[in-house]
Amino acid sequence: MEKNTAWAIGLSSVVLIGFFFLQTYFMPKPQPVTQKNETTAVEAAAENSESIEKNIPEKIGIVNSQNSDSLAEENFTLETNKVKVTFTNRGGDIISYELKDHIDSDTNGFIQMADNITDSNRAFAISIGGAENSIVNDIFVSKKIDDNKIGFFKNYVVNNPDGSKGEFTLVKTYTFNPNDYVFKLDVTVAPGENFQGLDLNGSSYSLRTSPQMGPFYNPKVNRYENRQFISYNGKNKKRIILGTNQTKSYEKEWNWVSMAGKYFEVLLCPSDSSSMNSKVTYSSKTELKDKTDAQAIVSRKSVDANGSNDTYYVYVGPRNEKDLRIYNVPENNVWKLDGVRFDNSIQTSGFLSWLEIVLKFLLEMINKLVHNWGVSIIIVTAILKFAMFPITAKTAKSTVKMQALQPKMQALQEKYRDNPQKLNEQTMKLYKEIGYNPLSGCLPMLFQFVILFAMYNLFNNYFEFRGASFIPGWISDLSAGDHVATLKFNLPFLGNQIRILPVIYVISQLLFGKITQNGGTTAGQSAMQMKMMMYGMPILFFFLFYNAPSGLLLYWTVSNLIQLGQQLYINAKIKK
């Protein structure tokens, strides 16, 4: 095998291995509330205040004279064509959020987007003050306004900076649309008697996403799933990855923040980002054993005596361009959102995203004809390999020239082993005599590596592969590993699933490596290194990619088999 080939394989393995260790992010533990210049921040009102209720905007539609202190905890369910949501009147929070169009293969139930709920951490809970404070845990008065709208409110007393008492009402109103993944959350601080504002170290309240989302995620087990946090400021996006039990703050202006997995995400977008503090808290801390959280917490700036009424648009659904890009054009979405660029939350290949777009377009066009994503992968792979055949042939010819040079190279190395400068001069002279360019093999390989990089990201993250069957009974989900049997025990490093595709992939790698050695005369330490690369790398890849998505392995396997045939053809032509 040519040295350049070995280097390319080694480099690609480093890059690919790095991808598999991108994992999780989460939530901070609640801490006591502290108000600027005050020892006590907020205490629940002992009595119902009619004066506060009169100040609740009528459009909220939940004015109710009932005293919430006498209420028991109660759950409410709201269901649309897309989601099934369960609320609790404790804090007016969400404790279950199921996507009805998407099934969790582990539970055979709907995908749960409000996971790891506890008494001290619920989805879209509010903390008075900053993200470090405990969530509001009081019973709220509730009212189901219609089939798609529900509201909650609670009266509070706050210590003003001058030492007097002020009253306000905290109101949360959720509005859904029957056929949309976005819901609207209105958070109102309605001023009551002697209310002078709400300012706890620069924040009035904080709002958090769900502690975790499905499918079930454990970074120790799911190498091909991940959790990442994304913030977008209208031009650029920032992605943050957290390890287990970590908290990190992002302190730049943002338009929306997202907690994203491989195929699903929770995205929070205030209608007026200028009212929000720039600091966003991301946390992977959890109070649950053997679980991980992934939570984003944002805080609203201080509120003056006039109170506040803030609107948040929350996307809870597939991390899919088709569903996300509709919010760029007002005519395409019921909320009339314009240019919010939720689709920028999708994982791309960075500077190679343009190539990924081209490949995705080609893949989708072919699938419209064959109606099978597995067959589409095979056809796209074949098109790419045959399109790159001239480059492949050039690389192969360069390899043959290099192999032919080996005896002369070894003679020069022996002759000038004590004179490196002379060895370099004679080596370059030898290259010139036979017309060999050392870069002739590297540059074509670099181009192929660029294609590989873009294809890897596309096939590893493409939402349409989730649940897409190629060969029923064998490859039934292109986003997961293939499956032929399940053992009652775990195999070391592999698990208990018996898979065939990784075996075929490794065999194709070994055969290709063997063929590219054709005519090679490398000896000594170099020969040993070549053998290690030829046999060691495929075996390493077998363990690394054993549980890889079958769509990704299908691409690599077909690519190897086609290139194997091309190499045999090239070798035959060279012999003639």
Automatic annotation (TrEMBL):
Bilayer topology annotation:
Multi-pass membrane protein
Sorted alphabetically, the Gene Ontology BP terms of this entry are: protein insertion into membrane; protein transport
Residue ranges annotated as transmembrane are 6-26, 369-391, 438-459, 535-558
Asked if the record carries the keyword Transport, the reply is yes
* Intracellular or extracellular location(s): Cell inner membrane; Cell membrane
Keywords from the named record: Cell membrane, Chaperone, Membrane, Protein transport, Transmembrane, Transmembrane helix, Transport
Its signal peptide is none
A GO CC annotation recorded here is: plasma membrane
> What GO MF annotations does this protein's record show?
membrane insertase activity
Pfam family example for this protein? YidC_periplas
Annotated Membrane insertase YidC N-terminal domain residues: 77-325
| InterPro entries the UniProt entry points to | Membr_insert_YidC (IPR019998), Membr_insert_YidC_N (IPR028053), YidC/ALB3/OXA1/COX18 (IPR001708), YidC/Oxa/ALB_C (IPR028055), YidC_ALB_C (IPR047196), YidC_periplasmic_sf (IPR038221)
What is the protein's known function? Required for the insertion and/or proper folding and/or complex formation of integral membrane proteins into the membrane. Involved in integration of membrane proteins that insert both dependently and independently of the Sec translocase complex, as well as at least some lipoproteins. Aids folding of multispanning membrane proteins.
Q: Which protein family is it in?
A: Belongs to the OXA1/ALB3/YidC family. Type 1 subfamily.
Q: What name does the UniProt record give this protein?
A: Membrane protein insertase YidC
